[in-house]
Write a structure and sequence with these properties.
Order of helices and strands: EEEEEEEEEEEE
Helix content: under 10%
Mean pLDDT: 85
Structural class: mainly beta
Strand content: over 45%
């Protein structure tokens, strides 16, 4: 609540905190909460995508994820997009809004063709996916077919990625 009190602690028996942690999350329509988990060492596909129902029941809807990240729903609520940042892929799923179910997982964007790795994302009213791209300093816009249609460079000319020797 506004005072910071916890009304109810949600038990998460499906998440093994020894091998994973929560990462990106999103609220979908019909009061569902979607959250992905990841391997803290970003090395193994031990993460999953979960759906938390209004009654707080938790369902695993996808396994074998390395770094679960960006989640977005198409404007018509018929497609869910989900990023695995470590392997550089965004997947699309058929989405059943009433059931809160996903099916027909397919590769939507492979970043080996784009450069960098996808991180968080959002979607606009035209169904274009906007993706923050790690290692490129850009936000890239993709049309509903997965074709790049725009790019915003966020790094000034001459900017170099800092190395650990520059970090204090």
């Amino acid at each position: 609540d506004e005072a910071g009190a916890v009304a109810r602690l949600l038990e998460t028996p499906l998440v093994d905190v020894a091998t994973g942690r929560c990462n990106d999350r999103a609220c979908g329509c019909l009061v569902r909460f979607w959250v992905g988990t990841m391997d803290p060492k970003m090395a193994r596909a031990t993460g999953s995508l979960f759906c938390v129902e209004p009654d707080l029941a938790i369902r695993r809807v996808q396994a074998d994820i390395t770094v679960s990240n960006g989640l977005a729903f198409s404007p018509d609520n018929r497609t869910l997009y989900h990023t695995d940042s470590r392997i550089g892929k965004i997947y699309a799923y058929d989405f059943d809004l009433q059931a809160g179910a996903i099916s027909h997982r397919r590769l939507h964007i492979d970043f080996k063709d784009v450069g960098g790795r996808p991180d968080g994302c959002t979607i606009d009213s035209d169904g274009h996916l906007w993706v923050a791209v790690i290692e490129t300093g850009a936000i890239v816009r993709f049309d509903p077919t997965g074709r790049e249609v725009g790019r915003i460079a966020l790094s000034p000319a001459g900017w170099e990625r800092p190395t650990t020797s520059h970090v204090r």
